[in-house]
Amino acid sequence: MTENLDTLGRALPQILDGLLITIELTVGGALLAFLIAVGLGLLARFDNRWLRGFARVVIEFFRGTSLVVQLFFLFFVLPLPPLNIELPPVLVGIVGLGLNYGAYGAEVVRGSINSVPRGQWEATTALSMSRTQRMWRVIFPQAWALMIPSLNNLLIQLLKGTAVVYLITIVDLTAELNRLRVDTDVFFAYSLGLVVYFILASILAAAMNGLEARAKHRLGRGKPKRVLAAPAAETKGAGA
Q1: How far apart, in whole angstroms, are the C-alpha atoms of residue 18 and residue 25?
Q2: Residue 13: which residues within 8 A CB-CB, separation 6 or more?
Q3: How many domains does the chain contain in total?
Q4: How buried is residue 102: exposed, middle or buried, by Cβ count under 10 Å (0-12/13-18/19+)?
Q5: Which CATH number belongs to the domain containing residue 121 in this structure?
């Protein structure tokens, strides 16, 4: 065990570098996935059948093909003629993750918007709101509170999905753990990996839970903790 810890100490700078790459992939992929999810989710609800059809084709294509194959295509095929598009490995990872999980997120966005009560839609019509005002001032804020739990799950899945990007020569956390395994043992290296990924997932989950609580509070469906604590203090004072 002591030898493993000594080896870990020597490998720590490289592991931290790999961790930073994993965080970059997660943040970059999540931002791109969110933009794609909102864009495709809204397009999938358009009355225009061509726009709606385009959104459905893109969503089903990226949901129905393997993330690993998508990464290989972006990394190995795009640089070939006639495309000749060569992207840095980290950017390939971000684009691949964003496209794949953005397609799943688009269904979350579409389903959440459809879940907003019909009365809210009718109210916006009665107020003579434009299509844009209706969506961004009334419908989307309510749908946002509904979609956060599902987006939270996708975000954690995306974090775990970064573990496959080492296949396209990116030295991320998983790649560094594989190197550590050679110098220590399988149990030590991958147990460390489980702990690190669990900590990262817990941080993301806590942040998303905070966003959900804030979104519900803005809609009048919840109260911040400091407000909830007030009645307890008043009750204690009354009892005294």
Answers
A1: 11
A2: none
A3: 1
A4: buried
A5: 1.10.3720.10
